[in-house]
Amino acid sequence: MIRITVNGQERQVDVPDDMPLLWVLRDELNMTGTKFGCGIAQCGACTVHVDGAPTRACQTPVGTLAAGAKVTTIEGASGKVAEAVRAAWQKLDVVQCGYCQSGQIMSAIALVAANTNPTDADIDAAMDGNVCRCATYGRVRAAIKDAAQSVRA
Amino acid sequence: MLHHLIRQAAQSGFPDESFGRTLVQVAPSRRNFLKAAGAGGALILGAHLPLPALAAGGAPPGIVGPADPRPHLFVIIAPDNTVTVLAKHLDKGQGIVTGLATIVAEELDADWAQMRGAFAPADSKLYGNHFFGIQGTGGSTAIANSWDELRMAGAAARAMLVAAAAARWNVPAGEVTVAKGVVSHAASNRRFTFGELAEDAAKLPVPQKVALKAAKDYTLIGKPGLHRLDHVSKTDGSAIFAMDIRRPGQVTAVLARSPRFGGTVKSVDDKAARAVPGVLDVLTLPVGVAVIAKNTWTAIKGREALKIVWDDSKAETRGTDQMLADYRKLAQTSGAVAADKGDVAKAFAGAAAVVEGEFVFPYLAHAPMEPLNATVALNPDGGCTIWAGSQFQGVEQMVVAHVLGCKPEQVKIETQWAGGSFGRRATTNADYIAEAAIIAKAYGKAPVHLVWTREDDIKGGRYRPLFLHTIKAAVDSSGALVAWRQRIVGQSFMAGTPFEKMMVKNGVDATSVEGASDMAYAVPNLAVDLHSPTSPVTTLWWRSVGHTHTAYAKEVMIDQLARAAGKDPLAFRLAMLKDHPRMANVLTLAAEKAGWDKPLPKGKGRGVAVHESFNTFVAHVAEVTVSDKGHVTVDRVVVAVDCGQVVNPDVVTAQMEGATGWGIGHALRGEITLTDGLVDQSNFDGFLPLRMSDMPKVEVHIVDSHERPTGAGEPGVPTSAPAVANAVFAVTGKPVQTLPFSRGGMV
Which residues belong to any copy of the 2Fe-2S ferredoxin-type domain (chain A) (predicted)? Predict the structure, then answer.
């Protein structure tokens, strides 16, 4: 049995140590908001927070999580920054197919939490790992700036 | 996609307002929809729009009368005051659920906040695409297809709500008004919500004739500020995609397919795979070797442990370099004639300047963010239920019925939000859904969720075909285009499919030459021919289909010709578009908004391209910076689009933004290559997607139009890349004729 803390709840799962956190969330805990996109940390669709840091769940064997590590997924993202990011996404109608957007939003929350006035270069650096095949990038950029502004206000 | 059919339908006339359309009230027996709305006593409405007889051997579409006595259900008004529009089209990000709901809401005078969307069940008789004859989404047809029937359904529902209110208040219907979801009688200051009237309205006769609004009276259609209906569920993780389906007892399957196209299984050693804890079964099937496990990770581990010997005797073993060399040889000979006007040879002899070019377009994967997947549960009646991001429900029902030995109507499809498609989910043989059904049938014990990994997707074919174009064109001494000869070489993805009869005429696959054989620029001498070599490499339409390569070759060549003629690229184009006012209009609009005449500093350039596809007109103007080392950065893109009456302008804007990124991203560095028949790329580390830092600023301008609405999903793609190439040409003087740009060291 492996114990992990997801969205503030302690969970126990009976899986091998090397099963990626992505599949623990999706297949064992039925938390499907975190998406499978590439499996090799090239697309960012599986981005979650581990102790607040954006992390690719597909390349995080569940056994490597430190004891007491706190995992946050899109379903559990909350607080002032998360609410500002989500509101900006909705206000600007960022989504198209939406499949990558859980990961985009988790990366954006981590960015804005660390930097409430990101430049275009900051956004490029923080978001280049999140692929959107619908190319919603322009709106993602605008929504991050909008969210950052409301967090600053 | 299927532009040919669309054009046929357009030419033979859209169904006349007065003909054959009967509004029908649903029988109470269809309780499944009542349940879907969450309550009884709902008003449920549809409209009969007869399907063109396309399925019957390619006869021109015409009105055949109601094919099915059951109503086509589109609108559910529930006592909880929600209005649910049933979308017969797949929403794969293009926003069609929002668009269809907007159409209904307008005629209904609903409040946008009460609108909901749901996917209609699979049923080609009820929910067929009027351009295809079966249920399916593609060719940027969804709005054009649903425009009439949904306005009719919305208007009829409104009339019934008004009649119900008038009866309750005992006042003439003419004194009852509807606005923003409220039914009012001003004189007595009384009001009802739609929900309060739904049960009464459902008991009334359905009006057989309804007046539709004039465009000047629209309050929702064409107006800004309507949020997408999926903008909340797709930002909190609650939207359910096919990948997220979890049925009781469900198992996961992954399939080992031949690494070479056309290969088959020779022998399998599955001992190690079966020994992986959690692997439930290994099945050797005609489509490959399926590993079934209790979860996805285990299934993938099991597949890695398989030892398979493949029979490559019928497989493609060439690399793409060799294929291209073979294409070049073919291009030396004449192909099937797609266009032949005037006398090109004579025109070349008398021309002032002749320009020649060879264009190369690589294989491209669609790579939607949600990898292909489907869940299939066998039903006791011998049929099944499928959960998928289903795009061609009509085809899938027929193919799966064949797999299971049941009737197509026994194949139930629960369509889910799709995580992108770009053409990939619309296949002529239901490929991945058929695989899932084959595995579910063979396993037999539980619902099977077949998952493609990203590697399966990138290596799995159904690519935009590799294409070679050779073009020779000439201008006369006045600088006018006088001759154009184009030879196109590339695989046909219609040949050998049920669509071949419709799409391939006299050896010419319409999807290979669209945008070339029907060139809009005035040219007195035009010859286009086509070679369609075959290969086991599977190919498919890819967002904007033939226009992905024909528009590029045409528009880049036009800039070369303008230079040869000593003309400005914009003026050169406009002079040849006198018979195409809507094309000229978007071209002028984009150029004006971009500031075409404003000089740019050294190292920066501006390029333009214009094209018609799917009855929509789009022009792009791109600004680029070319560094001293020759590296290209796209700084700004201006798009002008005329898609007729716009339903939701922000959704159209989003499609133009996305299509621009799609076109440019693949032009910069997208390619699938083969070496000895093996695909060189396997994931996003090799098939390089557009990323945030690549995305230019995109400004979209929509032509204000009350022409019939066309489509917006694909038409933004064709002109995006050639506008960038022409901007590079403006800086360097070197045309970019081989894609991707990375091949030329430009990115």
Answer: 1-77
